[in-house]
Amino acid sequence: MRKLLYLMAVMGVLVTAAPSSAFAKVNIFACEPEWAALAHEIGGDLVDVTSATNARQDVHHIRAKPSLLAAMRKADIVLCTGASLEIGWLPILLKKAGSPDVQPETMGWIMASDYVEKLEVMQKADRSMGHVHPEGNPHIQLDPANIQIVADVLADRLFMVDRDNAQNYSRNLNVFTKKWLAAMARWEGDKAVLRGEKVVVYHKSWAYLLKWLGMVDVASLEPKPGIPPTASHLEAVLVAIDGQDVRAIIMAPFENEDAAKWLSDKSGIPVVQLPFTVGGNDNADDLISVFDETLRLLKGAS
Ligand SMILES: [Zn+2]
Q1: Which of 89, 101, 146, 277 could staple 116 via S-S, CB 3.0–4.6 A?
Q2: Element at 109 (helix H, strand E)
Q3: 125-158 per-position pLDDT tens digit
Q4: 191-300 CATH choice from 3.20.20.10, 3.30.540.10, 3.40.50.1980, 3.90.930.1
């Protein structure tokens, strides 16, 4: 049943808590599937998790719809990426439906990106640069070291919000950490062949992944972050990558394939759709398999 509920949550179906349970669970409102998955790992049976979005949605553009307001209303912890990623909808949800315990800077409010070293932090940003994130690139979930950092933060908060169960959270964190460190060690071996390899990206969603892998992005299909690809920009990209040995054009499940396909047809470089988050393809059904799949697909492309 938990597995089913979890799948429903990942699919974006909102799961409501059992009414007036004698053992009230901690309700965690996660903005993205990766944080929902992490909340399940650390919270186990003691939490109910809602994922506000699924892997097929572009989190930059979500509506603060009534089902999300309902989920926010019962949230004990809000676990989101931050760094303006959810700027278009999370503040509205918090204002309209969030309890005092989950408002900014309170115990129940966790912005994952606050705890990691962000890439692409800007001194100055303006509209001419496109839909940029001035606090730095928010797409932090594809560096596995960041996942561990957020796991530690979440466990700390759960200790505070639900003291009676602190030991259980501590045990879950230990189990997760052991599993995660083992996976990271395994990925070190897997990723060696990708070091120094070049890719074209769709959006700047992959900065952390590429840094972790030692890969280089030589162009973006978007002319500016958040601005859809244009014919003239794609022509320019085609010229720019001419003669470069580019391994793949990588994109997320929610991005439009047309531009990537056009460039692939002209250049012969394969398009590789990576899971990006939990649920991003059929095999990527938890955090470890997101990275397993990402490495498998990148290694398979060339
Ligand atoms: Zn972005």
Answers
A1: 146
A2: strand 109-111
A3: 666 666 667 789 999 999 999 999 999 999 999 9
A4: 3.40.50.1980
